Amino acid sequence: MDPRDALAQLGGVAQSADLLRLTSRKRLRTALERGDVERLARGRYRLPDADRALARAARAGGVVSHLSAAVVHGWEVAHPPPLPWVTVPRKAKVTDRRAVNLVYGDLTEERVVTGCTRTVVDCARRLPFPEALAVADSALRRGDVDGVRLVRAADEVRGKGAASARRVARYADARAANPFESVLRALALEAGLDVEPQGAVTAGGRTLHPDVLDRDHRLALEADSWAWHGARDAFARDCWRYTVLTLAGWRVLRFTHHQVMRQPDWVVACLRTAAAGVPVIGSLDGEEKMSA
Predict the structure, then answer these.
(1) For site-directed labelling of 99, which of 138, 195, 240, 254 has its Cα 20 to 30 A away?
(2) Per-residue model confidence as pLDDT tens digits over 254-278
(3) Domain locations in the chain?
(4) 8 A C-beta contact, residue 124 and residue 151
């Protein structure tokens, strides 16, 4: 796989070990030489979108914000921003608004990029819930944002997006391993399920941690990706895991990265159907139609 595509699938930022599960060292070296990928730190890589956002922000007289700020901070995101996000002062006159997501807002201490907590709150106010939750989970997972402070900051929001900010802050959880799992959990919440990430379950004489868990419906949701499940040993472990969970009385639903990221309505329909006990009718290509 092309390193850019691999990084995008992994959230725009990834450790070399995870990246090399999807691409080769030779391709990664070539991508680095071409500038398609940049080294964030030793053994950690990201897409070069951050530099583009910084240049656009400087040109507009503002700061990098929202999803672009999340990338600058080194957080994994569900979808790398197609256009840089830039926030400028409310009364600023920006002549060139092309190729940028421009937002007018208050800028106090920000000079180059919005602060970590503000970035999460800004994303929560403007992005769809699954994408915003992925940002918040990543910020908590990296230790850049404190959960209690995030809730307080969200509670202080007034006006448009306030309810969305409080919702994201309420459900943000550092236990989510990656944006793939965060988005799956967000879709489960939108389907009306009461879920938690990496919840502990005893099955087969061991403590397991399904990616997303609904204890009331005894549903275990798994985000299946080649990045984590493509190796032979991983496949064998997964088969054992799914079998013992099923024998312990859990229903295991497995979703691919493409289904979660590109077919969210279908995933939500599946989850609602599973919770209601209605059978699924359709093909196996991820475009199933739910029974009435």
Answers:
(1) 138
(2) 999 999 999 999 999 999 999 998 6
(3) 3-46, 49-171, 179-290
(4) no
